[in-house]
Write a structure and sequence with these properties.
Helices cover about 40% and strands about 15% of the residues. It is an alpha/beta fold.
């Protein structure tokens, strides 16, 4: 293929089409992932990129076909069905289409680990594996006839009916990351609907949690953007909209203390005043000087990876922390008036229904502001995924032409893995019931009437007046009450969604009953998707039949 490429559409689908009735607990706080960064890179190379997020606006196939020369689709696991259907529809209209994203980002090149990529190649002719910052520009050059496809590392593609997988591309160095242009948030369509802005800054994690796909994808050597560059990105992005909050989306913001301090000092030096949230590990809270500096720079919440209150479960999943250390971290963060969003997993090796109920009691006792109880998932590329062949053990109700739809349920809200002590139905029930127990009516209402003692004392230590400290203490609890009330509503709404109710029913059935009843889920999905999936299935069978006949002749 040789064609002129100038206008590029970068699509980041939501789990379902825009406006579709979908229970999404993160509604209103989502934002494009790689799109702004890739728009900055591609535009610096002379292309004109438009980023379209399925959480912000619909995808118009006619408009995309008429106005763009090529389409790039970035997906995570639960948005894969939507992304691949879009890719097939646009490819059939004659547009060059490539898919990439976290679903295809892990590095292992075994036949099994390539299965998601092979699946995607039934829908679209090109898949970028791993980091796309160098692979995608080289693919565009190949489309324009300036290099052969076989020279593009990290690319999988269809050629003459065969699926070809070029060698992996090594991860970018820190120097290469710092040479990337700043993200172009101004290229995001309907960005003014966003209220939360994100900055990444770090790639990789030195930890080795067995269920996590971050370090196998991004490496164990942390690669960071220079602190000045991070704050340049923050400052430039904040000028593109009216944002209420910033999310530091690095998997573990304070993992490099010197870097985190430098970022905070730069934010303070430039006088940027906006509250922000980060993801972090328990160990980082031991550095009180860092916690205090982050608070001064505007950090108001840590999303803390607690996972379990069982030291055995923590140890077996290679999570390097103890329950005692978790309790110490929570006390330190509260001492500095930093909210905690506690992230727990249901279905770790030693979990039982009783131990998970105790987790809720523990979270309440520790006065954690908000929590999540997500089901352990078979994340492609994780250590457990490869070690235990989780693609064979996970609950995947769909088969045949509809098999790709199983990815819809890989977002932590659906049980996919049973354990020695818990069935699939018990894991699902624990996730829902423990979330409901935490987000009870009482939990939501009580903070409305009381000030927060830690926030009050933190205000006095910072030199605020008695009245200002009291006001901050009330505000802390009013915000907590609002977030808990939101959690109260969303988890109960999740239970009422017909698709979710039917899925939970399947978890209680025998394998034979699941095979018979699974297609009942299809009535809750877009009919256009089902039409495309059946078409892809027919085309796949025709290709396989042709290959058999060719080999025989």
């Amino acid at each position: 293929m040789t064609r002129r490429i100038h206008k590029i559409a970068w699509l980041e689908p939501a789990r379902f089409p825009f406006g579709w009735e979908d229970q999404n607990v993160y509604q209103g706080i989502l934002f494009p992932r790689a799109g702004p960064r890739m728009a900055g890179l591609l535009d610096s190379l002379g292309y004109d990129t438009t980023v379209i997020s399925g959480d912000l606006s619909p995808f118009d196939l006619d408009e995309l076909t008429a106005n763009f020369d090529a389409v790039c689709i970035s997906v995570i696991s639960c948005t894969t069905p939507h992304g691949l259907v879009l890719g097939k529809q646009l490819h059939d209209r004659g547009l060059p289409v490539v898919v990439g994203g976290y679903q295809f980002a892990h590095q292992t090149m075994s036949r099994d680990s390539l299965a998601p990529t092979e699946e995607a190649l039934d829908f679209v002719p090109y898949v970028v594996r791993g980091e796309g910052y160098r692979t995608l520009p080289e693919l565009l050059e190949a489309w324009e006839g300036r290099r052969p496809l076989s020279s593009v590392q990290g690319l999988s593609y269809r050629e003459n009916g065969r699926k070809c997988h070029n060698p992996d591309r090594p991860l970018m160095s820190q120097e290469e990351i710092n040479a990337l242009p700043l993200p172009r948030w101004d290229k995001v369509r309907h960005r003014h609907a966003m209220k939360i802005f994100s900055v990444h800054g770090l790639l990789g994690c030195p930890r080795r949690c067995s269920w996590c796909a971050v370090w196998p994808r991004d490496g164990r050597r942390v690669r960071s953007t220079d602190p000045q560059g991070v704050v340049d990105e923050l400052e430039m992005g904040l000028r593109t909209g009216h944002y209420w909050h910033v999310f530091m989306s690095a998997d573990n913001f304070p993992i490099l203390p010197a870097w985190a301090k430098a970022v905070c000092e730069e934010i303070i030096a430039r006088g940027i005043k906006i509250p922000w949230t980060c993801q972090a590990e328990v160990q980082a809270a031991k550095r009180k000087d860092l916690v205090a500096l982050m608070k001064r720079a505007g950090c108001v919440r840590w999303c803390l990876g607690l996972e379990s209150i069982s030291d055995e479960s923590l140890r077996d999943s290679e999570k390097k922390q103890t329950v005692a250390e978790m309790e110490g971290a929570i006390r330190i963060l509260h001492e500095y008036d930093i909210h905690i969003h506690g992230m727990f997993i249901c279905g770790l090796p030693h979990d039982t229904p009783e131990s998970l109920r105790r987790s809720v009691d523990w979270a309440k006792r520790m006065k954690i502001e908000t929590v999540q109880f997500l089901c352990l998932s078979d994340l492609p590329g994780s250590l457990d995924y490869e070690r235990y062949r989780l693609w064979e053990r996970s609950f995947r109700p769909f088969t045949g032409d509809y098999a790709v739809l199983n990815w819809l349920f890989l977002n932590g809200h659906y049980a996919r893995l049973s354990t020695e002590y818990m069935s699939l139905a018990q894991v699902q029930a624990a996730s829902v019931e423990n979330t409901k127990r935490f987000y009870s009516l009482r939990q939501a209402l009580v903070p409305t009437f009381l000030p927060n003692g830690d926030a009050f004392r933190a205000g006095l230590r910072e030199g605020r007046s008695w009245w200002r400290s009291l006001a901050a203490a009330y505000w802390h609890n009013w915000l907590t009450a609002g977030l808990r009330w939101r959690g109260f509503l969303l988890i109960r709404r999740w239970e009422r969604v017909p698709l979710n109710r039917k899925y939970c029913q399947l978890l209680r059935m025998s394998p034979e009953q699941v095979a018979e009843k699974a297609e009942e889920l299809l009535q809750y999905l877009p009919s256009e998707w089902l039409k495309v999936l059946r078409q892809v299935g027919r085309e796949k069978r025709e290709r396989e039949q042709y290959q058999v006949l060719t080999a025989a002749s």
